[in-house]
Write a structure and sequence with these properties.
The chain is 73% helix and 0% strand. The protein is mainly α and 137 residues long. The longest helix is centred in the last third of the chain and has 30 residues. The N and C termini lie far apart (57 Å).
């Protein structure tokens, strides 16, 4: 809900400030960011014990994504590439392949991150730190 509360004013800004955009595409790109960001943030929080480390990793991933050429194969491995692809479709009025690739990538990344988070938490919940095995004498 917080992600949507942040995305809606930015979407309205594009509606009132810019013309000749595919506004549905802009909305889908922002929604894709919100949907991917939730499990991505949960995975970072699950893997890194300190908040500052998680923040630095998140900043590094986002900065790396902004620096990579969107057409390169490395850019397609970043979690928010789908939003960039959908936004390119919405702003530059390119063919529908951009929209299809973006939606497919967003769905795949969201599912992969969700399954990974579930796996990390299932392993973490099955550990018994309070039990210590004492070797037999």
């Amino acid at each position: 809900m917080l992600g949507l509360a942040i995305a809606v004013p930015f979407f309205l800004l594009t509606v009132f400030d810019t013309t000749n955009l595919r506004y549905a595409g802009i909305a889908v790109a922002m929604l894709c960011c919100v949907v991917v960001a939730a499990p991505f943030g949960m995975l970072i929080g699950a893997l890194l014990p300190r908040e500052l480390e998680g923040t630095l990793l998140l900043l590094t991933v986002v900065a790396m994504q902004m620096l990579l050429d969107p057409a390169s194969s490395g850019a397609k491995l970043t979690p928010f590439w789908s939003s960039r692809e959908i936004a390119t479709w919405a702003v530059d009025h390119v063919d529908d392949g951009y929209l299809a690739r973006g939606l497919l990538h967003g769905l795949a990344v969201t599912l992969l991150l969700t399954v990974t988070v579930a796996g990390v938490f299932s392993v973490r919940l099955r550990r018994r730190r309070h039990l210590h095995h004492v070797p037999a004498a």
